[in-house]
Amino acid sequence: xxxxxxxxxxxxxxxxxxxxxxLTMLLPFDWMISVSLRVPxxxxxxxxVPDPFTLKNYSDLFKDLPDQAFLYLTFNSFKLSLxxxxxxxLTCAMAAFVFAIVxxxxxxxxxxxxxxxxxxxxxxxLIPDFIIFKYLGLIGTxxxxxxxxxxxxAFGTFLLRQYFLTIPRDLVDAARMDGAxxxxxFWRVYMPLSKPAVAAxxxxxxxxxxxxxxxxxxxxxxxMQKTTLTVGLxxxxxxxxxxxxxxxxxxxxxxxxxxxxxxxxIAQKQFIEGIALSGVKR
Length: 282
Fold this sequence. Notes:
Blueprint: H1 3-36, H2 56-64, H3 69-101, H4 107-116, H5 126-135, H6 143-146, H7 154-164, H8 170-177, H9 182-193, H10 195-211, H11 214-219, H12 229-242, H13 246-266, H14 268-278
């Protein structure tokens, strides 16, 4: 048999494994949607396709939670996630530009030291951060969830630096000859050319901030008008389950991931391009 035949068989096996893996990953997601569309009496049914089909759980989500809590929770999560994206993109982009373009003594050592901090678990700095914010009187406010985003990050700096290295250095020399400052080169040359990498970083940061449960649980009060969606769903989990409304909880869980799905599908092309090109070094 020819090599092309063996290659075709290998391709079929690879695609079969990938499809099986995709179906395995999608099964919990499909089950969540299925439960959210069932009546409470059939919430523990093993059928994937709900019978009967109902959308009442989504309307009950806003009725069962007091004082339009779901809207407040969603707004708080979106606000904190958006501010985290703005802070991370700005600070990480400026740091990445310096590490990629500006030459100074000890640059490579400092960058290696920054990347090494990725090995430190975030839980290690949780107690020192809490003490600092308590000393500043910020506990119980949203500032402990906003300010760290404007301190930069090792992952975002590494991602953008790798992408900046793929941009031809001749653009810097040409801009310098035209009298552009470093900030002009960063803002008018590199940032417009780095949209794929910025989109990839934005998706990562938004996802992490949106799904964060630990930090809002520690820093924010249990007031449903001030905390985030993840904390709110965890808080109402026992209440809805005790009331036999597991279907309503699944409706809330599904609505909580809809923004992530929308953002990913809108910026999917830029996201993939940014990840692919960030691993290429000139």
